[in-house]
Amino acid sequence: MGVLDVVVIRVVIVSIVVIVYELAFIVVIVSMGVVVGVLVVVIVVIRVVFASLVVTVFMQMFAFMMEIRFGHKASLNS
């Protein structure tokens, strides 16, 4: 019985270690997923902000060109 008890204890310990390892692996995967998700969100936000800035600058440049084209600057200066 002593040998069987040792075997049972070893099996229990190994199974607990395996379960803990699997849980740690799952936690690492989930945390990696969270990190990747946060990175994706940050990249999307940066792209949206950058795109809106580019569009704003382009619109300002376009308005400036239109002002030069149609001579609104002269009427404003006078």
Q: How does this structure look, described?
A:
With 78 residues, the chain is mainly α. The protein contains 2 helices and no strands.
Could you list some keywords that capture this structure?
single chain; 78 residues; mainly alpha; 2 helices
Largest sheet descriptor: none
Question: Which structural class do the helices and strands define?
Answer: mainly alpha
The percent of residues in helical segments reads over 70%
Shape descriptor reads rod-shaped
In DSSP terms (H or I, runs of 4 or more residues), the helix count works out at: 2
Distance between the termini: 108 Å
As residue ranges, the low-confidence spans are none
Question: What's the quick description here?
Answer:
The chain is mostly helical and 78 residues long.
What's the arrangement of secondary structure elements?
Layout: H1 2-70, H2 72-77
